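User: Here's a chain of 181 residues. Predict its fold as C-alpha cells.
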Amino acid sequence: MRLPTFVAMRVGWTASAAIVLALILAACSDGARPPVETSASHASTPAAVSADEAQAVFAQYLIASDSVAVAERGDASPVKPYVTPRMLVVEQRAATAFKEAGVHQDGATTFDGFTVQRSDQSEMVAYLCLDGSETHLTDADGHSAVKEGTPDRQSVVVTFVRQGTQLRVDGLNLWSGQSVC
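Assistant: Prediction complete.
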C-alpha cells in the first residue's frame, strides 16, 4: 500500500499514535468558517474567484507543503505565499510535529476532481480528491508512519480566500460527504 502525505496527515489520515497526538495538539484547521459578508455599496464588484485560479494556487501550495515535509526542518515558511496567516499557524504546528516525531516524506502529493461548492468575490469553497498514492511517510526507524488500511486518496474540502489581490488557502479538511475521488 502506498502511503499518504504530509498534507493528508494534517487533514485526518491516521498515523502512528505519536503523530496523531502531535497533530491534535497542533489544533489542525477545523474548517468551520462563517460566510464572508460582502458589501453591496462597491461601485465595481470584482469577479468571483475562478476555479482555474484556485486550482493553480492549490497546486503551488501542495508543492510547497511537500517541500516542507521532505526537508524535515520543521519550518513551514515555504507555504506562506499560498496560505492565510491562520492557516500558516496550522502548517507550522504540523511541520513542528512531524519534525519532532521524526517523520520523513518521499514523493509528491497530487489532486484531481476539483469541484466548486460555492464562490464569490472573496471566497471559494471546493471539494477535491487529495492523492497520496505516490508518497511515502516513514518514522525515524524507517517504518511506515501510516496506519494499515489508510486509503491513498481522500476527499477534502478546501476554503480559499482573497487577501488583497492574492488568493490563499484558508482551510483544508476531510470531506465526509459523497466522495469526489
